[in-house]
Amino acid sequence: MENSISTAYEEKIIQDLLPRKFKKSGRILVAILSAICLVGIYAYYRQLRYGLVVTNMRDYVSWGIYISNFVFFVAISLVGSLITAVFRLAGVKWGSPLTRIAEMIAVSAIIFASLIIIVDMGSPERFYNLFLYGRIQSPIMWDVIVIMTYFFISVLLLYYPLLPDIKILLRFKERSGARLHKVYSFLGSFWKGTHKQYLRSKKAINVLCITIIPVAFTIHTVTSWLFATTYRPGWDSTNFGAYFIAGAFLVGAGAVVVAMYIFRTWYHLEDYITLKHFDKMGRVLVLLCLLYLYFNVNEFLTPFFKMKESEAGYLNDMFSGSFAPVFWFAIFTGIILPVIILVFKQGRKPLPMFIVGIMVVVGAWFKRYLIVTPTLLHPFMPMHDVPASYHHYFPTWEEWAITMGSLAGAILVIVVLCRIFPIIPIQETINEHHETAK
Amino acid sequence: MKLLNKILGGALALLFLFPAGNSFAQTADKGSLSIAVSYYVANNKIPSLGVKVKTKVNGRFQNVGGIALSLFLDKDTALNLVGNVVTNDHGEAYANIPSSLKKQWGTSVKHTFIAAFRGNTKYDSTSGDFTANKARILIDTVSGRSVVATVMEMKDSTWKPVKGVDVVIAVRRMGGDLNVNDTPTFSTDSTGKASADFKRDSIPGDLKGNIILVAKIVDNDQYGNLSIEKTVPWGGKFVAKNEDFNARTLFATRGKAPIWLLFIANGIIIAVWTVLILLVANIFKIRKLGQEA
Q: What ipTM was reported for this prediction?
């Protein structure tokens, strides 16, 4: 009797968590995202044809929103290591329904981080030279190596835990359709769920979790070094590695919260992504916000206190000048307000959490913009005899289109992955159910 | 209806008059050019000419590029043509006096160099000229590191010393000429000589310590621009610091990466990718286990 109840419950879990075909709203979403991507591709075609002159990047602001976007994507990709690896190794059981979401976000973000850096290149056809003639002394080379490594680990960390779920998916050929069934067969038809297979898979996942943490720390530290190894106001900091990682964990967690809410509402996963998950993630967000706030204070208070002449222009522009609205928006919306909302229990309910997640992500994007542009507009040597347009930077429509296209592309990858694979690990949820029943 | 016709007629007349007026205005707006001609002789060898073309815009002179000019020796005739040149973005153009004009060159000790512009759609035709006496400059050194420059002028087919000409005596450097001491120019005496003490003792030279001295007359109304060079071993010997150049540093070429960096970076890359390759191999092992089951 007990067994039959358990089997029925297992079937319910499977039915609840199997990937579903898009409804009308899903198809509209895919169409909108595809359209934004196409506009971005057209803008990139124009950039390839006419050169980087179609952007507003010039002699001084040579890194515009492309690099801000790159840093944003790298930051958001770190969530894979936080939710999957850190939580798993720390024995945080409640985080297991969120691991797949986190890994999907990580994979899509790292794909677009790689793409956007190529977009920033004036001659992308020469990219291969980086591998042929790259200098190991250059932080850019370190970034290329570590991004490739992180991408590979993230894909493996997405794939290994999928194997038991693929075995389940293969049982539902009619529901998944012939084409998807072929994909599942190719990816995991060999998984029989034997004890030996399980042990090997478990061991591999543990190794991956251990490996991904230092690589994740490296990827964002190296990204920060792209700036910190350059002697410029605002970048000349020993705090940058830790500052970037703290910010990355925050934006990654914010993105997971947004995804949690959307998937929970869209697929009616209230039984699996529960109020408890929002509450716990809310607490994690508070911790990460405070940590990032601490690093921000470190980053800005000491230069502000000294107010060196060479950095005064940059700092004044950030605190009270032309960048002040964006700066204070990013600080308040992305860090301070989320803490104020989330310290209250009511603030850790799904809808407020969703809004806070969006605030964190949007604030984080602008924070990356502020890391790149104001510094470039305040070089140590004064700007003389340059066109007036060199003194400020606002992206052209091509830059916006490519940036929005990449953001839409990253979301599209997540949406497509959710259509193909279960958002919540099915087998893991069943196993947890058995453990709870015991 | 009549009123409407009048309005339409008036409008049409204005429409046709407007471009016509514009075209008249364009003719009236034709600019004028100013052409300056310079004469150069370096090391008493082939003489050459330089031209600089400017125009006045809003009360300020601006260089004019793309202006086609014909350069002549003494007369504006085809026989006396030095060459045809076009000015660059700085409004400058240069031409050597060709050997075909050797005969005309020998007929006189004084020559006039003419630059003629025939006019185009933007500028009226104009010309500029410069008259120079044949002269030469010599350079020599005397003991105690002193430099002597001598200026001579051709008079009655013999070279005669010239008094009171300002001469720059300097050392050739990459960024320009550096005076041999604090005096900017030296005036020639009745023997045509101007001497200067060399005070730049610490100046770096080539591998043998050679530096190049130069004596020159700049933009002289009578003689134009004359210059002459002489190499002397008065500089410090250049010692290439190859040990620094070849050192392995973070800023060197990729072949000169520091050993510690190569060891650490490649060590980490190999270690991590070995783990990843083993994990991929593990998938195949899991696949095999599945087939056995």
A: 0.88
**Tens digits of per-residue pLDDT, B151-200?**
999 988 899 999 999 999 999 988 789 999 999 999 999 999 999 999 88
Q: pLDDT digits over B218-243, tens only?
A: 999 999 999 999 999 999 888 877 66
Q: Where are the beta strands (DSSP E) in B92-164?
A: 92-96, 110-117, 126-133, 135-142, 146-155, 158-161
Q: Which of B262, B272, B277, B287 to mutate to test the interface with A (most CBs of A within 10 A)?
A: B272
Mutate to test the interface with A, among B256, B283, B284, B285 (most CBs of A within 10 A): B283
Residues of chain B contacting residue A133, judged by C-beta atoms under 8 Å apart: 254
Q: Please list every residue in chain A whose beta carbon sits closer than 8 Å to the beta carbon of residue B272.
A: 149, 211, 215
For all residues of chain A together, what is the average pLDDT?
Answer: 92
Burial of B28 (0-12, 13-18, 19+ CB in 10 A): exposed
Mean pLDDT of the B71-77 span: 92
Q: Is residue A1 part of a domain?
A: no
Whether A3 maps to a domain, the answer reads no
pTM, two decimal places: 0.72
Q: Which whole number is the average pLDDT over A293-306?
A: 94
B-chain residues near A211 (CB < 8 A): 272, 275-276
**Which token pair is A413?**
């990858």
Helix runs in chain B, H state only: 2-28, 102-106, 242-245, 259-292
DSSP track, A184-206: HHHHHTT----HHHHHHHHHHHH
Chain A contact set for B262 (CB, 8 A) = 136
Q: Which of A131, A137, A208, A209 to mutate to test the interface with B (most CBs of B within 10 A)?
A: A137
Residue B191 Cα to chain centre, angstroms:
34
For residue A139, being part of any structural domain is answered with: yes
More confident residue, A423 or A436: A423
- Mean pLDDT of the B99-106 span: 89
Locate A102 and state its tokens: 């986190």
Q: Is the CB of A153 less than 8 angstroms away from the CB of B276?
A: yes
Q: Distance from B118 to chain A by nearest Cα, in Å?
A: 35
> Do residues A95 and A87 touch, judged by C-beta distance below 8 A?
yes
Contacts of B252 in chain A (CB under 8 A): 137
Smallest CA–CA distance, residue B8 to chain A, in Å, is 43
Residue A71: which domain range? Answer: 8-379+388-437
pLDDT of residue B192: 94
B290–A152 CB contact, under 8 Å = no
φ, ψ of residue B188 in degrees (nearest 5): -80, 150
Q: What is the residue type of A131?
A: F
Q: In chain A, how many domains are there?
A: 1
For residue A82, give how far its alpha carbon lies from the nearest alpha carbon of chain B (Å): 19
Query: Can you tell me the distance from the alpha carbon of B208 to that of B196, in angstroms, rounded to the nearest whole number?
Result: 23
> What percent of chain A is modeled with pLDDT above 90?
74
**Residue A301: band (very low, low, confident or very high) from pLDDT cuts 50, 70, 90:** very high
- Interface test mutation site (partner B, options A135, A140, A184, max chain B beta carbons within 10 A): A135
* pLDDT for position B16: 47
For residue B293, the chain A residues in CB contact (below 8 A) are: 192, 194, 197
* CB atoms A196 and B253 under 8 Å: no
**Residue A374 domain-assigned (yes or no):** yes
Interval A353-367: pLDDT, tens: 999 999 999 999 999
CB neighbours of residue B142 within 10 Å: 9
CATH (domain of A345)? 1.20.1630.10
pLDDT of residue A2: 53
| Chain B residues close to A149, C-beta within 8 Å | 269, 272-273, 276
Burial of residue B231 (number of CB atoms within 10 Å: 0-12, 13-18, 19+): middle
